[in-house]
TrEMBL record:
Residues 235-260 are annotated as: Disordered. This is Lariat debranching enzyme C-terminal domain-containing protein. Pfam families: DBR1, Metallophos. It comes from the Eukaryota.
């Protein structure tokens, strides 16, 4: 399977998709590790963190409205510049636009059997141990805290036992710079030096997840520079094998990281993951930057997963009352559904939270096993297969945006910032997203995310 990975999009979706289309060999999937800026209309701009002049409408609104369709299946996570109210509607994951699937605050899916996990947001020490206390639409400092990763999700990540092929995060796992060509990185970005030296560059919780889950690949962005590395798990002093790392993992400008002969062996190893994780961060999506990478990965050998099929293009919307068709390529991950079912009642919406239970106790492990059995017997047995396709159930919540007739041409409009739409742009409402409601019902959990939202 051939996939493309991109760095921070920052609204430049047209550029990304034209670059993907220009690749010599077509890809089956595009992965985006945050800062997509899924801004549906000017009303989403107040939820984007950053100064007003920095908030731009970008290209996404046309993919949301249906004026354009993503030409390749796109799986994304959130970063620290996002339409936060919109992403919150889909915090358990869902389609943000046809053919564009958001993994949620934390989530795992399978694309043609390939197991893809993603953790949205960036580390922020002050908010890490809080609940999801922000109200929506977000105001004030909640516009920043809402994209900070939470201990609740790290607690859930450490429950994952089955091997993960690809993990997406926005910020880098701490210490990753020591596993690649640090000198070249520092030559490009000398200001990183103090944080690298003190071990504060990136997310320590993400590093803990990397070391525990040991995915075959880890893709990130956020730092707006291209950097490749290889983490050797279990190596006694993995940070000192610079020669080997440079040879295997360094992604010089234009150099590909595809062709991974160790993959099959590594995947077959006992334990929770692979012997090594290949890390790659890419630059921001701007002309002339190194923002796109094609990677060839072996097709999954997971029993019961369908083989390659042509990409699907979810329909724009589903007529009321019709059961949506399920994607042939994108499936729910059964272990993750079980973890969500077993843990969602521990999610807090308060600032101060009770300590989370120890998930390694016999009692909690029994809870997880029970949830897994429930997923299998209740959700899977009725499908007659081993997989559960994600419904193609994208629907608008906020009204789609059409550029005003007095601003002809997309580019002129897309570049407009929040202030161009007037200081009095009304924030988007909190919507009840039907995808989230359906997900909660399917897994048997309460919808605490947007129960009082306006029906979209
Ligand atoms: Zn960025």
């Amino acid at each position: 399977m051939r996939i493309a990975v991109t760095g921070c999009v920052h609204g430049n979706l047209d550029l990304v998709y034209s670059a993907v289309s220009a690749l010599e060999d077509p890809v089956d999937l595009l992965l985006v590790s945050g800062d997509v800026e899924t801004i549906r209309s000017p009303s989403d701009l107040p939820s984007v963190a950053g100064p007003k002049w920095h908030r731009h409408l970008g290209d996404f609104y046309a993919y949301y409205s249906g004026a354009k369709v993503a030409p390749v299946m796109t799986i994304l996570i959130g970063g620290n510049h996002e339409a936060s109210d919109y992403l919150w509607e889909l915090h358990h994951g869902g389609w943000v636009a046809p053919n564009m699937y958001y993994l949620g605050g934390a989530g795992v899916v399978r694309f043609r059997g390939l197991r893809i996990a993603g953790w949205s947001g960036i580390y922020g020490e002050r908010d890490y141990s809080c609940g999801n206390f922000e109200g929506h639409p977000v105001t004030g400092t909640d516009r920043i805290s809402c994209f900070h990763t939470r201990e609740f999700d790290k607690w859930r990540w450490l429950m994952v036992r089955e091997p993960v092929d690809i993990f997406l995060s926005h910020d880098w796992p701490t210490g990753i710079a020591h596993h690649g060509d640090k000198e070249t990185l520092l030559a490009k970005r000398p200001t990183f030096e103090p944080d690298i030296s003190s071990g504060r560059l990136g997310s320590a919780p993400a590093r803990s997840v990397l070391d525990t889950l040991r995915p075959a690949y880890w893709f990130a962005s956020h730092m707006h520079v291209r950097f490749g590395a290889v983490v050797h798990h279990g190596a006694e002093d993995s940070g000192t094998q610079d020669g080997e790392h440079a040879e295997e993992g360094n992604a010089d400008e234009g150099r590909d990281v595809e062709g991974v002969p160790e993959w099959t062996t590594a995947r077959a190893m006992a334990g929770r993951g692979t012997a090594k994780t290949k890390f790659l961060a890419l630059d921001k999506c701007l002309p002339g930057r190194s923002f796109l990478q094609a990677v060839t990965v072996p097709d999954s050998s997971t029993a019961g997963q369908p083989g390659p099929t042509p990409p699907t293009f979810p329909t724009q919307s589903i007529a009321s009352g019709d059961a949506p068709a399920a994607s042939a390529d994108l499936h729910y991950d059964l272990e993750w559904l079980a973890i969500v079912r077993a843990t969602e009642s521990y999610r807090s919406f308060a600032k101060d939270v009770e300590p989370l239970p120890n998930s390694t106790t016999d009692e909690f492990q029994a809870r997880l096993r029970e949830a897994k059995e429930w997923v299998r017997s209740t959700l899977i047995s009725s499908t007659g297969t081993d997989v559960l396709g994600i419904p193609l159930s994208f629907r608008h919540t906020a009204p789609p945006f059409t550029p005003p007739p007095d601003v002809p041409g997309k580019k002129a409009t897309a570049k407009k910032s929040a202030s161009d739409f007037g200081a009095d742009v009304a924030p988007s409402q909190a919507y009840l997203n039907s995808q989230t409601a359906a997900f909660c019902e399917m897994v048997g959990i309460a919808n605490g995310l947007n129960p009082g939202g306006v029906q979209g």
